[in-house]
Amino acid sequence: MTAKLHPRIQTILYEYISMVQKELPLQGFYIYGSIALGDYSLELSDIDFIAVTDQRLNPDGIRHVEQVHRLVERKFPKPNLNGIYVTWEDLGKLQEEITPYPFYCDGKLTAAGYFECNLVTWYELKHTGITIIGPEASDLAFTVDWGQLISLMYANLNTYWQRWIVQSEKHLSLKSAALYFRSSEVEWGVLGITRLFYTFREHQITSKARAGEYALLIVPERWHKILQEALRVRRGVKKSMYASKSQRRSDALHYMKYIQKEANAMFE
């Protein structure tokens, strides 16, 4: 294990890997995402992992890892393990280039599908991944084209995030209700789109919290309250900065549209 990891995360990984290795030798195991970026909450963050085996898991292997995940989650409800089971040949590739693989997300194991198979995942693995088993992440035999990554992130800004904003603006929609009632939705929307803004400006990938802190230094003061509210949620602080959920929802949506416009202006 590495000293970079919180003791509870080390304990969870030790339990998980010890049980998995009894029947399924892992050739590689890596942590990426918010934990690897140093921006995690033991209550809010997931343990994002990439497990590498010499070949696709067979039905016995899938049953084994599913059982291990259930045992680990029963003993350690938080933080959750979310990750993929791939081969060395899969690393760095997009879903149209590889066959479906097993993955575990939100308490469910899917035997064959695609999850987190994108250039952001591979970039984070290569540049900030934490090696638990196998060769150092920085030495893995693949590269990520930065220009292609930016193009895909730009498309994400104007597809996923555009739909997210539009659906959340509809007053009777489930998305709108979620943004009104759930602080986690505010955090997801405000900091998620801000993270893209940071990458487009600074040509680096950072955590959501650091992107939010960065934006506080860049954007007009009128947006500071909603940014601070999103950062409050990210940090697990209980008391909201808003007396009105309606105002919070409105500020979140107006801020996100502002950031989308500012980000798009960089490509004009």
TrEMBL record:
Keywords: Transferase. One of its GO terms (molecular function) is transferase activity. It comes from the Bacteria. It holds the Pfam family AadA_C. Residues 190-257 form the Adenylyltransferase AadA C-terminal domain. InterPro entries: AadA_C, NT_sf. This is Adenylyltransferase AadA C-terminal domain-containing protein.
